[in-house]
Design goal:
The protein is mainly α. Helices cover 66% and strands 3% of the residues. Helix 5 crosses helix 7, helix 7 runs antiparallel to helix 8 and helix 9 runs antiparallel to helix 14.
């Protein structure tokens, strides 16, 4: 039994607005909006918990409207193995080299996991009972990224001292400031590209979408993030290959051939600076650091690691020939160090089951999930990543997990059938949300 979206437009519009607000606030809470530690902690803890309660309230509001919560688990190993990963992280408090840090990181990762559970469940319920509605996860994500990026683009002109971060001895200004790591901001821009590009598939506001993408690419360029630029180009190439219109393919490929060399020369190769080229070859010192981690750090705690989000007995790991690091700058190396080979095995299997579920999904969902995974996976190779310290890359990966983890229960209870029947027969003017 389904409901006619035309009869429930006000309810659907209201739900879409709240979904956007919740997602926007959740992602925004990962930023460091103030240099004041107290304010930052209040935003990250109080703000994120408030958004979590907001997601639960919205879920109850949708249920009270008469929409059955008749979802069931599908691809159980996807979310199940992630749950095992979180359980192992919780258990690691027993041997963590700093329980306070491990507990805080675990709490924030679990908190976003629960948020994504309710967020995706709301969308799944609407998908099931309002076929033909316009609420789309990729639009919610794309618009969230656009408005956050717009804050930085405006800020870089209004208050450059705050929104720019000086690197390489003050020679290079990169968008992000103290608010957000430029590479993480670049990854966020990549996710926005991956999501908004879907609007072209059904010609949904193409001019507005083009404007949004121009702003996002401008932000991406200003971050100076090499990996994010490569990810964005890969996303465009991926979608071009999905198009059946040869003319569009030729035009986009021609545009990429013109833009890519300039972008790569400016952002990746840094105008051919020889010192910067040497820096690229060592991945800004990451390769020696990873080598030292495997050779010196891992043998100390190979089985269960140093504890959730810990990479050494001390606060920083430092080898004789590497810089001191508090994190590994590689999400898979991070898992290996903080949860050992046991945690790494769980993570590998979790990702395998996730990819299997994505490849068996509907075409639209499959393309969307792969598009989102491209920038966050690239970011995972050089930064915090999907299993690193709490960041919105983890949030996006958790959204992917739950997007392929819900199925539809075939039979409704008597109470659910009666509630759905009442809503089906309700006139548009009487279809105001309850609560």
């Amino acid at each position: 039994m389904t409901l006619d979206p035309a009869k429930h437009q006000e309810f659907l519009r209201s739900t879409e607005r709240w979904l956007f607000v919740l997602l926007f606030l959740m992602v925004a809470c990962f930023f460091t909006w103030s240099e004041n530690v107290v304010i930052t902690r209040a935003i990250k803890l109080v703000g994120r918990n408030g958004v979590l309660f907001g997601a639960f309230y919205l879920y109850r509001r949708v249920r009270e409207y008469g929409v059955p919560g008749s979802m069931t688990w599908d691809n159980i190993f996807v979310a199940g193995l992630y749950g095992v990963y979180l359980f192992l992280g919780f258990a690691s408090f027993l041997w963590s080299t700093n329980v306070g840090v491990s507990a805080l990181q675990w709490f924030m990762t679990t908190q976003s996991f629960v948020f994504c559970l309710y967020f995706i469940k709301i969308i799944s319920m609407i998908d099931r009972y309002f076929p033909g509605h316009r609420i789309r996860l990729f639009q919610l994500l794309g618009n969230t990224v656009y408005y956050l990026v717009l804050i930085f683009v405006i800020g870089m002109w209004v208050d450059p001292d705050t929104f720019f971060r000086m690197t390489h001895g003050g020679e290079e200004a990169r968008l992000g400031g103290y608010i957000m790591n430029p590479n993480e901001l670049g990854m966020l821009a990549g996710v926005g590209v991956a999501c908004l590009i879907f609007n072209y598939y059904d010609a949904h506001r193409p001019k507005w979408t083009t404007f949004q993408l121009i702003i996002i690419f401008y932000c991406l360029y200003a971050t100076g993030s090499r990996s994010s630029l490569i990810g964005a180009l890969m996303i465009i190439g991926f979608h071009v290959m999905q198009s059946e219109q040869q003319q569009i393919k030729v035009l986009i490929i021609a545009g990429m051939l013109v833009v890519s060399p300039v972008a790569i020369w400016k952002v990746v190769l840094k105008d051919g600076d020889t010192e910067r080229l040497e820096e690229i070859m060592s991945m800004t010192g990451r390769l020696p650091f990873w080598t030292a981690l495997i050779a010196e750090g891992l043998p100390r705690e190979p089985l269960l690691g140093f504890g959730f989000m810990r990479i050494d007995y001390k606060e920083y790991f430092q080898s004789t020939h590497t810089y001191p690091g508090k994190m590994t700058h590689n999400t898979f190396m991070q898992v290996l160090m903080n949860l050992g080979f046991v945690g790494m095995t769980v993570v590998i299997y979790q990702m395998v089951f996730t990819m299997r579920a994505i490849m068996s999904a509907t075409k639209e969902k499959k393309l969307m999930m792969i598009g989102i995974l491209i920038p966050i996976t690239i970011n995972s190779l050089t930064e915090f990543g999907i299993f690193g310290e709490s960041n919105y890359g983890i949030l996006f990966y958790q959204l992917v997990i739950f997007s392929v983890s819900f199925g539809v229960r075939e039979y409704l209870t008597t109470e659910e059938r009666m509630g759905l029947r009442r809503r089906k027969d309700t006139e548009p003017g009487l279809a105001a949300p309850c609560g």
